[in-house]
Structures are given as C-alpha cells and as structure tokens.
Amino acid sequence: MKKIIGVAVFLIPFLTNAQIKEYKATNGVTYHINDTVRLGKGSKADGSFLYVEDRGLALPRPGPAGDSRGGGRGLTKEFANAAVIIKSIRTVPVNGVNKYLFMVNPGGIFRYSMFIDDAIAACEVKPCTSTDTAPKPVASL
Fold it and tell me: Using one digit for the tens of pLDDT, what is the confidence trace for 39-64?
C-alpha cells in the first residue's frame, strides 16, 4: 500500500500538468492541437528557421543571456511557406517568463518545437506581426 501511495505522489505532478488545448497568439489566431500552422520564411541568414527547432528527445532549455532558444537545429529553408501540425501546446518558463511552446510535426517522424510568439514576431509564421503590416502613424499638421 505504501508503494502505491509513493508512486501516486510521484506521478501526480505529471498528471496534473495537463497540456493546454488552445492558445490565442499575438497574431490574433487561436491555435488548437492538430491545427495547421502556416510557415513563412526562416529568419536565419541561410533561410533556415530560428524559432522552429529540432530538440531531439529533450524539452527545450533556455539558452544563454535571455535567449529563448535552446540551441537545437532549425527547420531547413526548404520548409518556407509550408505547414506544420500542432501536436501539443505547453508553457515553458524562460528567464522568469512563461512562453508558449508548440510541439509541431512538419511531416515524417520528427517533431520540432516552436516558440509561437517569437516565431510570429520574426514572421516565421503567417500571419505575422511585422512592422510592414503595422498601421503607419499619421502626420499632424
């Protein structure tokens, strides 16, 4: 009986950390599990993606000096203007701030992590919130 209670106490944090079912991102789109996310262009110099990364088996870890990326390999530039499917939505603390992390599948057996709001700000996700689409201030006379 003590073993069962011990196992239950150990598993409760994992079972109560339920996955998020939807998230309204900074671009105004509400994303759900199994939704398709349209990609834009990768924001790295070589055209690969900075915020859509292969993380292997581990969850992402914050990088150095406020960097929200964990050093994984970015999705290649061949995926520009393609789509990925959301497999899970979670929050991850990065330097004291909770960021929304999507685990996505671009096709095949591998999953990639995407810090959705960072990807939107960099226009790696469509629609994005770039300065080109922001309303321009009106000059006063």
Answer: 999 999 999 999 999 865 444 444 44
Q: Which H or E element spans position 8?
A: helix 2-16
**pLDDT tens profile 70-114:** 456 888 999 999 999 999 999 999 899 999 999 999 888 888 999
Of the candidates 31, 35, 124, which has an alpha carbon nearest to the alpha carbon of residue 75? 124
Cα angle for residues 41, 28, 92 (degrees, 5° grid): 75
Question: Hey, what amino acid is at 133?
Answer: T
CB 68 within 8 A of CB 94: yes
pTM score: 0.70
Q: Tokens 């006379």 belong to which residue?
A: 141
